[in-house]
Design brief:
The chain has two domains: about 160 residues, Rossmann fold (3-Layer(aba) Sandwich); about 190 residues, Rossmann fold. With about 375 residues, it is of the alpha/beta class. The radius of gyration is 22 Å and the shape is elongated. Helix 6 packs parallel to helix 12. The strands form three sheets. Strands 3-4-5-6-12 form a five-stranded parallel beta sheet, covered by helices on one side.
C-alpha cells in the first residue's frame, strides 16, 4: 500500500494515518509518513486516548488495516470513534464484529452468494480488491534480462521448475500430494519451495519421499529480500498456488515478475484472492481451475506443452503495464468512490448496505 496514502485526491479526500507501531526506519514508513496528508504516531498511546483523538479529528470513514493480526488494536474500533468503520487488506476474512460496517473486497473474492458468511456489508471494487505498488517501485523487473541465474540458487538449468513461495503453513496434505503427482507426471521436473520456515524442509522432503518423489526433486532456498524475491521469481516456469490459503502478496509478486500460476478457488475469502489477481490480468481463464484434478492436469499440460506455456508467459509480461491489477492510481480512485458511497448512504439516514463500485458514478465528484 506504499503509494496509496499519497495518491488520494486532496481536493476531495483528507487522509489521516494513525501509526500503531513505532518508527522502524524502513523506506516504507518514511515514504508513507512523507506522502500522507496527516501522519500521527500513536504507538505510545492507550487505545482509549487514540479513539478519542480519532473522534476529535472528525474522521468520517475509519479503516482497519490490521484485523486479527500482530499489533492490531481492534478495541479502538469497538469504541466506535467514527460513524463508518471498514475492514480492508490486513485480514482476508470476516471480522465477525458488529462494529465493523463494511468489508472492502471484490465480486470474485467475496461473491454475493457467500455474503452470509460475512458480518460486514460487502463493498465490491471493480477488478481486484488487492492493491499493489510495483508500477511505482519495481519497474526494473520489466527489463528483458534477469540479473539472477538459476545456478545462483542451486536450481537446475535444464529442468522444468514448478515453484511455490508461500509460507509452508499454507500447504495441506491434499495439495502436496497433488504436487507430488505433478512432478511424477512431468519428466525432468523439480519443485522449488522456500525455507519459510526452515524447520519445514526435512519434513516436506520426507513427505515427498513417502509419495515416490526423490528428495532432490524438492529444492529449498532461503527467503530473499523483497526486490530480489520478485526478480528471481522469473527463474521458475510455473507457480503452483495453495488452495486453502492462497498466495496474496506473493501472488502479485510472481505475476509482476511474469510468472504464470495455477490456482484453485474455494469458498472462503483467503482461498479466492489469487483467482482475483489472475482475473485482473485479463488471463484468468488460463490460470484458474475448478477442481483438484483440473489443477493437476492443467499444470501437467502447461509443463509438457512449452509453446502453450510460453504464449501465456508472454501475454502476462505484455499486460503488466496496462491491466487493472497493477494500476495503483486507478485502484485508489475506485477506493475513493467506495468511501463517498458509504458516506452518502450514512448521510441519507440508511443503514450500511452492500454495493458495487462503478468506475463511472455520478455520486462521486470525479465523475460529475
Amino acid at each position: 500500500m506504499g503509494s496509496v496514502f499519497g495518491m488520494h485526491d486532496r481536493d476531495n479526500v483528507e487522509v489521516f494515518c494513525y501509526a500503531l507501531s513505532q518508527n522502524d526506519g524502513t523506506e516504507w514508513r518514511q515514504r508513507i509518513q512523507a506522502e500522507a496528508e496527516h501522519f500521527i504516531d500513536v504507538s505510545a498511546m492507550t487505545s482509549d486516548v487514540i479513539a478519542k483523538m480519532i473522534n476529535e479529528d472528525k474522521i468520517q470513514v475509519l479503516i482497519n488495516l490490521n484485523g486479527y493480526t500482530k499489533g492490531a488494536r481492534n478495541e479502538i474500533f469497538a469504541m466506535q470513534p467514527a460513524p463508518i468503520q471498514v475492514s480492508y487488506m490486513g485480514f482476508p476474512g470476516t471480522t465477525g464484529a458488529s462494529y465493523i460496517d463494511y468489508l472492502v473486497t471484490d465480486e470474485f473474492v467475496s461473491p454475493t452468494r457467500y455474503a452470509h458468511i460475512y458480518s460486514e456489508k460487502l463493498v465490491h471494487l471493480p477488478h481486484c480488491y488487492f492493491v499493489n505498488d510495483y508500477k511505482q517501485k519495481n519497474c526494473d523487473v520489466l527489463g528483458p534480462v534477469c540479473p539472477h541465474e538459476r545456478s545462483d540458487y542451486g536450481l537446475p538449468k535444464d529442468k522444468f521448475i514448478f515453484a511455490c513461495f508461500n509460507q509452508l503453513y499454507k500447504m495441506d496434505p491434499e495439495i502436496f500430494d497433488t504436487w507430488c503427482n505433478i512432478v511424477k507426471r512431468v519428466p525432468n521436473s523439480v519443485l522449488w519451495l522456500l525455507r519459510f520456515p526452515a524447520t519445514g524442509e526435512m519434513r516436506v522432503k520426507a513427505h515427498a519421499a513417502a509419495r515416490g518423489v526423490s528428495p532432490d526433486q524438492i529444492i529449498f532456498t532461503d527467503v530473499a529480500m523483497k526486490h530480489e524475491h520478485i526478480r528471481r521469481s522469473e527463474l521458475a516456469d510455473l507457480f503452483l498456488d495453495t488452495p486453502l490459503c492462497n498466495a496474496h502478496t506473493t501472488g502479485t509478486d510472481i505475476l509482476w515478475a511474469g510468472l504464470p500460476m495455477i490456482t484453485l478457488p474455494l469458498e472462503k475469502m483467503a482461498t479466492r484472492v489469487a483467482g482475483s489477481l489472475c482475473l485482473a490480468t485479463g488471463l484468468g481463464d488460463e490460470m484458474i481451475v475448478s477442481s483438484t484434478k483440473e489443477y493437476e492436469d492443467r499444470a501437467v499440460e502447461l509443463a509438457t506443452n512449452p509453446a502453450k506455456l510460453q504464449a501465456l508467459t508472454n501475454k502476462l509480461k505484455e499486460v503488466r503495464l496496462t491491466c487493472p491489477l497493477f494500476d495503483t492510481a486507478r485502484w485508489v480512485r475506485n477506493l475513493d468512490r467506495a468511501y463517498f458511497k458509504m458516506w452518502n448512504i450514512y448521510c441519507s439516514g440508511r443503514h450500511p448496505e452492500p454495493f458495487k463500485v462503478k468506475e463511472d458514478d455520478s455520486e462521486f465528484p470525479y465523475d460529475r
